[in-house]
Design goal:
The chain is α+β, with helices and mostly antiparallel strands. The protein folds into two domains: 231 residues, P-loop containing nucleotide triphosphate hydrolases (Rossmann fold, 3-Layer(aba) Sandwich), CATH 3.40.50; 117 residues, Nucleic acid-binding proteins (OB fold (Dihydrolipoamide Acetyltransferase, E2P), Beta Barrel). The chain is built from eight helices and 20 strands. The radius of gyration is 25 Å and the shape is elongated.
Length: 368
């Protein structure tokens, strides 16, 4: 077991491209940390620096209170599970699992016992004699996990390990991974671009953009209290809606006035917005905090819009709409609400659930 600490980490490649900068992150002993972000944000580079597969340009990587910047990968007591499984094609499943233990000169009886234990744990004890080419994608993934687990490392590093699986298998394997971590309680660092994996697997999640950490917190805290617009828009399916407007203060009450003159009362937002009077700001509202207004007379926090697309998903409907000012947004509705394409509707905003952001891709959330 081990705590992993990254302090003032920076990675610059030979072509002067800075992939990671100013990264400070501590992964607690036995914690499952998920690093999530779009392609090119630096998350895999961080994982490879922890593993020793990439050199650190600046800063220190510490594993179990020992700085490992100059420690070879084989001596860092970590196990890495790759996206492409990294199995030896000429070896059987048993031989793949036993290989690292043989290199450590582990007694044969102990190797056999350990392989049997892990194979039974992952339900692959009936395929130990097969070679990788005879396995399905899901079986290969289990073997890759088994190959890592059998070593009893101080920490697991996962580099998008489920991305090659089909959607159904990805969901079931995700659940198995979570149960496995609960059983093993080994420090785990998991890299993905899939926000669903991040939300469901992580004890905490680390959201990255352009080589920098944006927010580190438990999943629901990141979802409910995103520190900036990027984090708010990256997590959530469908994503958060953003409405541009100007803050207006009247009689001490704040409102966001949209370009078509529609006003969204922000008195329910738990922050003082007086210092943002007459400034262009962005209101963020999740699809589940919008609803169809059934009344005809009330105009408070109501946006007239037209239905563009309806996607029935069984437990809900995702409805894509366009407001009169051209603003497009998405609403999650009860599946039994009847709507039609090109129908004019009135969308009610639950302002108490809204967030107010400064402009820009990573505009700060001023409503926290």
């Amino acid at each position: 077991m081990a705590q992993v600490t990254l302090k003032d980490i920076k990675k610059v490649y030979d072509n002067s491209v800075t992939a990671v900068k100013d990264v400070n992150l501590t992964i607690a002993d036995k914690e499952f940390m998920v690093i999530v972000g779009p392609s090119g944000c630096g998350k895999t580079t961080i994982l490879r620096m922890i593993a020793g597969l990439e050199e650190v340009t600046e800063g220190t990587v510490t594993i179990d209170a020992k700085v490992v910047n100059n420690t070879p990968p084989k001596d860092r007591d970590i196990a890495m599970v790759f996206q492409n499984y990294a199995l030896y094609p000429h070896m059987t499943v048993y031989q793949n699992m036993a290989f690292a233990l043989k290199l450590r000169k582990t007694p044969k009886a102990r190797i056999k016992q350990r392989v049997k234990e892990v194979a039974e744990m992952l339900g692959i004890d009936d395929i130990l004699a097969r070679k990788p080419k005879a396995l399905s994608g899901g079986q290969r993934q289990r073997v890759a996990l088994a190959k890592a687990i059998v070593r009893k490392p101080a920490a697991f590093l996962f580099d998008e390990p489920l991305s090659n699986l089909d959607a159904k298998l990805r969901i079931s394997t995700r659940a198995e991974l979570k149960a496995l971590h609960h059983r093993l309680r080994t420090t785990s660092i998991y890299v993905t671009h899939d926000q669903a994996e991040a939300m469901t697997l992580g004890d905490r999640i680390c959201v990255m953009l352009n080589g920098q950490i944006q927010q580190v917190a438990p999943p629901m805290e990141v979802y409910d209290k995103p520190v900036n617009r990027f984090v708010a828009g990256f997590l959530g399916t469908p994503p958060m809606n953003f409405l541009d407007g100007k803050i207006q203060i009247k009689a001490g009450c704040a409102a966001l006035v949209l370009s078509d003159g529609i006003s969204i009362d922000l008195s329910g937002v738990n922050t003082n917005l007086s210092s943002y009077a007459d400034r262009q700001m962005v209101l963020g509202i999740r699809p589940e905090h919008l609803s169809v207004d059934q009344s005809s007379g009330r105009d408070e926090n109501v946006i007239p819009a037209m239905v563009d697309v309806i996607e029935p998903l069984g437990d809900r409907k995702e409805v894509y709409l366009t407001a009169a000012n051209g603003q497009r947004f998405i609403v999650n509705l009860d599946p039994h609400i009847d709507l039609a394409i090109d129908q004019k509707v009135r969308i009610q905003v639950v302002a108490a659930k809204a967030h107010i952001f400064e402009p820009g891709i990573a505009g700060l959330n001023v409503s926290l």
